[in-house]
Amino acid sequence: MFTLIFVCLCLLCCNLHAETECIPKTAEFKMKGDYLLGGLFDIHHVSATLQQNIPEAIICSSQNFSLSSYRRFQMMRFSIKEINNSTSLLPNVTLGYEIFDHCSDTKNFPGIFSLMSVDGSVQPWKESVNFSKVIAVVGTGTSTTTMTVAPLFMMDLVPMVCLYGASSSVFSRKRNFPSFLRTVHPNKDVIEIILRFLEKFKWTWVAFLYIDDDYGRDGLDLFGKKIQDTEICLAFSHGLTENTDYPKLFKQMEALRINVIIVFTTEWTAERLIMSAIQQNVTNKVWLAVDAWSLHKETPKKPGIRNIGTVLGFAEPKITIPGFDDFVFSFKAQHQCENPEQRPFCNQMCNCSSVSAEDIITADPSFNFPVYSAVYAVAHALHAVLHCGAGSCNKSIKVYPHMVLEELRKSKFTLLNQTVQFDKNGDPKFGSYAIVFWNESGDCDVSFDGGLKICFDVSTFILLLSYWFILWFYVLQPESFCSKECPDGYMKKQEGVHKCCTICPKGIHLNTTDSYNFIKCNKTQWSARGNTSCTELQLEHVKFNDPAAVRVISWTVILLAFVVAISVLFALNYNTPVVRSAGGPMCFLILGCLGLCSTSVFFFFGEPSVAFCVLRYFPFLLFYTVCVACFLMRSFQIVFVFKISGKFQNISGIWIKYNVHWIFISAAFFLQAILLIIRYSLEPPTKEKWYYDRNITVCDLKKFETDSLISFILISVMVFLCFCFSYAGKDLPKNYNEAKAITFCMFLLILIWISFGTFAHVLDGKFIDVSHAVATLLSIYSLLLVYFLPRCYIILFKSEKNTEQYFQDLIQSYTRSCSQ
């Protein structure tokens, strides 16, 4: 009962105060619609001295104004207006909103109760499906605020899509926060980025300053867990409050010789810290700023900011929201006062008349896309609930928040080239981090006087995609460590508080866990001169997920697709002159063997075994022999028909009657099969090759060449004869000259394997397997593309050349030219 009386008094107090204020004609904080979205933004911020645990209401408009939060507030209004104007998203449906200035963790419950109320009342003990007038809530701004507010919405599964500051890892626990989602990355992601930075630049002696609330303490806890198995040492940590003694704080860090300071806090706390550092003449430090304050607009302009050292930060890449600037200018141009009939609820006024459109547009753009994507996520969820189709939605469906929540969890849509999606914990599966670099020098443009530089976009900051681009860091080399590491080949020796280095004797290596004593490497290890540890001999081979393997396998799959496609095309056009002239049934034998040859490529990757070594050579040698034998017979037939058959008609009759070409192909196949089976049965290829520092698991290529010498000779002789026969028919009829195609095939084949033989003697280790696979694949492609692709082109695009009359005309023309 006391709570209800308190709420009524609060509402009365705020309404009486609001009567004296100037109210915009187009209310900023609320707009009617078919469905309402709630909004909680810390447009004003209450100082810690007022954050007492006394349950009394507070008027936020009298507190410190936050321009960046006001910009985010306007972003929500713009997003809803843009959705309402859309014809594809929620057609014929209007979204409304009711937004509150949530400036305090403990003194803004009237606004929360208003969002939870139905017809102006909250009845938590009464079972009713009408438990909230909003279908979802966008906000709030900090982890502590969210921790206070979220349970009130969780009990009825009202979706709460939170933004910039609500990044504590506790919200990922769906048991406690079942209807909580967020469009900003949790703390663990930025901690992971910080850890990579520290490891990259070998900063192992750091301080961690955090705001003393749920957000900061969560960051400290995550950082402590992340560095447990690393060489990074947390030399100092301290929670920042309004009562922090900064001079004492900086003296403690200076005594510990800390040069890298992680500042995990909000923008207002970070501003006090940086200003104190300037006043205390703190110099030559590296300050790592988290996304909550890295894009702060005013701090980089402070006098003396360059003296404190280098400020590096992490933030979401700036994403320009089309139409937002026009919206702000339009809204500011239409700002009017006095509408007695439209009276604001408690904390639904801003007193922002002095803020210009330019101020809003140029404010800190942090977390604007999370606001934009949060509103759109709710809209897409509602779109699914209402079964919206082309031009209309089913408004007869009664929408409850839990229905919107179910669709939110399944959200997946594209917004400004970003795929908006949530994982099972309600955390975003989209977005990335950019590096923010505060620096006064450089060749980049300046957006603000005394501000920050940009290289990739016309904004206030350098947004780098990777820390590899911070080239000047490699020159200055900031350092932060407890004791300087000894060079390779040196042993640590304790002398008082610090450690010094003593050179190690030659041929001796340090223990990996004890840098004060020497040990020797055992026989299964190796170590170069001057190393501080012994290294196990590593087994190396080309894995299936290796980039080179992925590319080769991809091209193999494409080749198989080509084989199938050409086979189908030839089968459908089997009785046409082009297919018959290409060999008729022999074409399908060649295509089938090429497909079987390509299977050997797959066995060049993965950990080799005896079976792998056999299968990478056996299918290729066997079935490629058949292909070459077919081409040999085909080239001989072409030359025989045009050059010899007239003189030796008896031979022609025998050739056709007894199918000599098929006998030869079968003989080549069985001969090669017998040779390979005998060779690999007697002595399978080995699979290991030792180097001084590693063990390469690879099939021995030299042994393969020796064992398969007869098989190679057989193929080589057929290739040579095929080349000779096909070259002899180089002057056959134009457009009917298969001999030229076969000649070029054989030429490419010879060139490919000569090139491979050259590279095989230059390359080392597992790269030989990659080059061998490439050579195998290229030799298959050479036959497939050079011989079959031109015929496919004639079948598909030059049907006038695929007629018996056309071929007869070519032959007759050739006969007349030969008789002249």
TrEMBL record:
Protein name: G-protein coupled receptors family 3 profile domain-containing protein
Compartment list: Cell membrane
N-terminal signal peptide: 1-18
Gene3D superfamilies associated with the record: 3.40.50.2300, GPCR, family 3, nine cysteines domain (2.10.50.30)
Membrane topology recorded in Swiss-Prot or TrEMBL: Multi-pass membrane protein
Cited InterPro entries: ANF_lig-bd_rcpt, GPCR_3, GPCR_3_9-Cys_sf, GPCR_3_C, GPCR_3_Ca_sens_rcpt-rel, Peripla_BP_I
Keyword annotations: Cell membrane, G-protein coupled receptor, Glycoprotein, Membrane, Receptor, Signal, Transducer, Transmembrane, Transmembrane helix
A single cellular component GO annotation: plasma membrane
Transmembrane segments: 552-574, 586-605, 617-642, 662-682, 709-729, 741-763, 769-789
GO biological process terms held by the UniProt record: sensory perception of taste
Residues of the G-protein coupled receptors family 3 profile domain: 548-811
Protein family (similarity comment): Belongs to the G-protein coupled receptor 3 family. TAS1R subfamily.
Domain of life: Eukaryota
Primary subcellular site in the record, as a coarse category: membrane
GO molecular function, one term: G protein-coupled receptor activity
Natural source organism: Oryzias latipes
